[in-house]
Amino acid sequence: MKKALVIGSTGLVGNELIQLLLADGGYAITALVRKPIPINHNQLQQVVFDFEKPDKSVVFADEIFCCLAPPSK
Q1: In angstroms, rounded to a whole number, what is the distance separating the alpha carbons of residues 50 and 21?
Q2: Which pTM value belongs to this model?
Q3: Which of 7, 21, 22, 53 lies 20 to 30 A from 39 at CA?
Q4: Phi and psi, residue 10, nearest 5°
């Protein structure tokens, strides 16, 4: 099983990506989140992550997906 890391899973694109990866069934997913998302699945681990003071020890995967939106003006 591949390990996927998803950054930005609370938005439209990130949420859809999580759903697609879960449907695929071939991924153990770690989602770096500011606050937990309302998805419970045995292949999904949510890690509350401080993007201002990142903990590099949780940033490892076979595939990394970044779904962050540009900052608001």
Answers
A1: 24
A2: 0.88
A3: 53
A4: -90, -15
pLDDT of residue 22 exceeding 90: yes
Beta strands in 1-73 (DSSP E): 2-7, 27-33, 44-48, 63-66
Per the CB < 8 A criterion, the answer to whether 15 and 7 are in contact is no
Q: Token pair for residue 35?
A: 């606050």
Each residue's pLDDT tens digit, 6-19? 999 888 999 999 99
Q: Compute how many other C-beta atoms are within 10 angstroms of the C-beta atom of residue 66.
A: 11
- Domain spans, the chain: 2-66
Q: What are 44-62's pLDDT values in tens digits?
A: 999 999 888 988 888 889 9
Q: Which two tokens stand for residue 28?
A: 């153990």
